[in-house]
């Protein structure tokens, strides 16, 4: 690397690092809401467990924990578990596979995620997923901004048995989620 390129890169890096405290300050809703964020440790096996129409979820961090910034959910599901194609109008989602295999379609791209892989599903982009392979799939679902866990709780409170798709569609619609035909 020549000297000019080195100096230019160093100056840009210094500017980026200098802006981090300002970015952190404005990225938190603490000032706006007046509620400082509190640290939280969540151990393996801890969190609120919810069966969302067959999708086994454990809420690790919720809107209440993050001042509405994001929600973090652990999902552990057997092969065959799936969510039909749908679109969010409010949230971006990140799926990170810890164990097993997850077939994910985001937009027009379908792929199989394995341990360590992740997929980003931005709002307004159709997506779906299905656990494939021969073992359970453990996935961390990150949702930005938070609040979708409220919908998941409502869905988890539906009576056991085959879901009433009209009721599921109505609940999801209130949260800005629509299913695709």
UniProtKB/TrEMBL annotation:
Q: Which InterPro entries match?
A: Cupin_2, QDO-like, RmlC-like_jellyroll, RmlC_Cupin_sf
Instruction: Output the Gene3D superfamilies linked to this UniProt entry.
Output: Jelly Rolls (2.60.120.10)
Which terms are listed as keywords in the entry? Answer: Signal
Q: Which domain of life is it from?
A: Bacteria
Q: Which residues form the signal peptide?
A: 1-24
Does this entry carry the keyword Signal?
yes
* Cited Pfam families: Cupin_2
Cite the Cupin type-2 domain residue spans from the record.
78-140
Concerning SUPFAM superfamilies, the annotation shows:
RmlC-like cupins
What name does this protein carry?
Quercetin 2,3-dioxygenase
Native species of this protein?
Flagellimonas profundi
């Amino acid at each position: 690397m020549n000297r000019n390129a080195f100096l230019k890169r160093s100056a840009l890096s210094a500017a980026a690092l200098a802006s981090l405290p300002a970015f952190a300050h404005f990225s938190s809703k603490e000032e706006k809401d007046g509620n400082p964020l509190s640290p939280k440790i969540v151990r393996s096996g801890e969190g609120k467990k919810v069966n969302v129409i067959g999708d086994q979820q454990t809420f690790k961090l919720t809107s209440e924990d993050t001042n509405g910034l994001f929600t973090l959910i652990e999902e552990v599901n057997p092969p065959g578990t799936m969510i039909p194609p749908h679109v969010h109008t409010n949230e971006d989602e990140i799926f990170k596979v810890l164990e097993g295999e997850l077939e994910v379609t985001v937009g027009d791209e379908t792929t199989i995620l394995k341990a360590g892989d992740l997929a980003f599903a931005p709002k307004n982009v159709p997506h779906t997923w299905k656990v494939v392979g021969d073992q359970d799939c453990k996935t961390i679902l990150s949702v930005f901004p938070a609040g979708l866990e409220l919908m998941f709780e409502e869905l988890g409170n539906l009576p056991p048995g085959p879901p009433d798709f009209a009721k599921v569609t109505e609940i999801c619609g209130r949260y800005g989620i629509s299913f695709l035909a």
